[in-house]
Amino acid sequence: MRIGEIAALVGVTSRAVRHYHHIGLLPEPLRRANGYRVYGIRDAVVLARIRRLTELGLALDEVRDVLADDSGRELAEVLRELDADLARQEHELRRRREVLAGLLEGPLTPDAPLSPALAELLRAAPATASPSAAKDREHLILLDSTVVGSDAVFTALRHIAEDPAVLSVYGRLDELDGAATDDPRVAALADELAAAVPDAVLAAIPDGGPVATGFGEALLADYPPAQAEVVRRVMARLAVRMRERAS
User: Fold this and answer.
1) pTM over 0.70
2) Domain HTH merR-type: where (predicted)?
C-alpha cells in the first residue's frame, strides 16, 4: 500500500501519517527503488491503534508511551489518568454552566460575569450612593476573580449585607475621607467593624487568605489614609481571631 491507500484504509489523512513519521511515532516503512513508501498490514495495525488512542483524547506523547509498552500496563495507567482528567473537565463544565445559568436568570450588569455567590450577595445588599460601598463592591469583584474558594466567603457575608445597619457603617467610613489616621473615629469604627464579622466568615476564608495573593496590600492602597487605617486595623483583628481559631 502507498501512503494515500493506508491513510484511507485507517481513516486518517496522508498529512497525519507523514506527521507521525516525522515525530517518530510511526516507523518509516521500506521504500521502493523509486522512493515511494510501501506499507504493510503491520503498519496499518499500528496506525489504526494510533488513531483509536488519539480519539480517546490521549496526547501524542502518551500514545508513544502506550505503543512502547507491549504488556498493556502502560495503556491501563494512561486510560485511568485520562478518565480522571475527563471527570475534572466534566465537573468544570457543569460549574461553568451553573455560572451561566445564574447570569441569565438576572439582569446583566456592567460588572458581569460574576460568580453566582457574589451575584446573590450584591443583590442582597441595600442600594446606596456611598463611595465606600461602591469601593467595597469593586473589591469583592476583585476577590471573586483572584481568590479560589471565595464563594463560601460571599455566602457567609449575606447576613451582614442584608442588615440595614451596614448603610450607617458605609456613611461613617465616607466621613473619614480626608481625615488624619489618628482621628478618634478610626479606632471606634475599626473595633465595631471587626466585632461585626461573624465566625462563619472567618471559617470560610481559604487557607492563607486574600493577603497571600497580594489582595490585602492592594486593598489598603486603594483607600485614603484614615479609611486605610480602619481597614488595616480590622484586618489585623481578624487575623488574630483566625489564629486563635486555628490553635
Assistant:
1) no
2) 1-69
